[in-house]
Automatic annotation (TrEMBL):
Residues 39-79 form the HTH cro/C1-type domain. PANTHER family: ATPASE DOMAIN-CONTAINING PROTEIN (PTHR34301:SF8), DNA-BINDING PROTEIN-RELATED (PTHR34301). SUPFAM superfamilies: P-loop containing nucleoside triphosphate hydrolases. This is HTH cro/C1-type domain-containing protein. It comes from Candidatus Chloroploca asiatica.
Length: 344
């Protein structure tokens, strides 16, 4: 005779996460925004909240758990099992179903290494995570705020700028055509900068200052400037930053800035002794942090799905510790481990 199932939080989280992982494999490629992002939307919460439900930081409400099991296509028996394991007070004498077990991937053929990607990610399908940060960015842009994205090299600032353009059409009042991108690595002087800006704006000649502002009357753009620290070289004058401020300061200004740099703007451009940068005064700073722990683990699981290779808990913990959850370092460390395991 089968023993009644009793509450077991660890088994609950393990089986719930296994069900989510199995669903992600089954629907691979059918959820462009990502499986967990879609699930969070259906549950009426954000992705961060869903992560907290799945790692046990927050207790998922019973109604949300029941909806989640339906979204995952689990039957009533499985749903009841999870409810009991989660300690929600429903007692049913059923055994844990085999349907929650994620099928082992075939090891007859090893897929190409899914890790090691470096540099700017322009393809939304390759971009991972950062949902909460992107939500903050679009929330600030919706207010008309200028933004300064600050973080170390290869933390993902350039990729975030690319995703602002890709996702802008889904935001109220923003079109992808109104989002302009200039990579400061390709710009070498004030004239170079304004020539590139006018070209992005669709202007057939070079304008600056008041004349440029007149050309943009009644028009609104979001201007993304990558590697803005390049503007501090001797080839650029303080005037270019002052003109940028004039074009982006105020509710009727034609430009809203999103600039990316490794240091705060006040440290990059102390244009006058005792003064702060004209750009620092108008740009709201946003730190670009490493992946959150749950985000880094989900990244590894997503990339490994269907490859025939798996990382155990000890290996995952070591990867997160070794990389500090820095995206590029995590990619490199995971790529090395994948190569090692694929060679047997």
């Amino acid at each position: 005779m089968r023993q009644p199932i009793t509450a077991d939080p660890e088994a609950f989280l393990a089986q719930l996460n296994a069900a989510v992982a199995a669903y992600r494999v089954q629907t691979q490629g059918r959820r462009p925004q990502g499986t967990k992002t879609w699930l969070a939307e259906q549950l009426g919460c954000d992705r961060t909240t869903l992560y907290k439900y799945l790692d046990g930081t927050n207790r998922i409400p019973l109604a949300s758990l029941q909806l989640l099991t339906k979204l995952l296509g689990l039957d009533e028996t499985v749903c009841n099992t999870l409810i009991v394991l989660g300690g929600y007070g429903v007692a049913v004498p059923v055994a844990p179903p085999e349907s929650l077990t994620v099928p082992a991937a075939s090891t007859t053929k090893i897929a190409p290494n899914p890790f090691g990607r470096r540099g700017r990610i322009d393809d939304p399908a390759e971009f991972f995570g950062r949902e909460e940060l992107l939500r903050q960015i679009f929330e600030e842009l919706g207010k008309g705020s200028n933004l300064s994205l600050i973080g170390p090299r290869e933390i993902g600032k350039s990729s975030l700028l690319a995703m602002i353009q890709h996702r802008s059409s889904a935001q109220p009042g923003i079109s992808s055509e109104a989002v302009l991108q200039i990579d400061m690595q390709l710009i070498h002087s004030d004239e170079d900068f304004f020539e590139a800006l006018c070209a992005e704006l669709g202007l057939t000649r070079l304008y600056r200052g008041y004349h440029l502002a007149r050309q943009l009357t009644g028009r609104r753009y979001i201007l993304c400037l990558d590697e803005i620290e390049k503007m501090r070289r001797d080839r650029f004058s303080a005037e270019v930053r002052e003109e940028l401020r004039g074009l982006s300061d105020g509710s009727t200004a034609p430009l809203t800035l999103v600039v990316a740099s490794g240091q705060p703007l006040a440290e990059l451009f102390p244009d006058k002794l005792g003064d702060t940068s004209p750009l620092a005064n108008i740009c709201h700073p946003l730190e670009v942090p490493p992946f959150k722990r749950a985000e880094a683990r989900d990244f590894l699981a997503t990339r490994l799905a269907g490859t025939g290779i798996s990382f155990d808990e000890e290996e995952i913990a070591e990867l997160l510790e070794q990389s500090g959850r820095h995206p590029a370092r995590l990619q490199q460390a995971a790529a090395a481990l994948y190569r090692q395991k694929s060679r047997g």
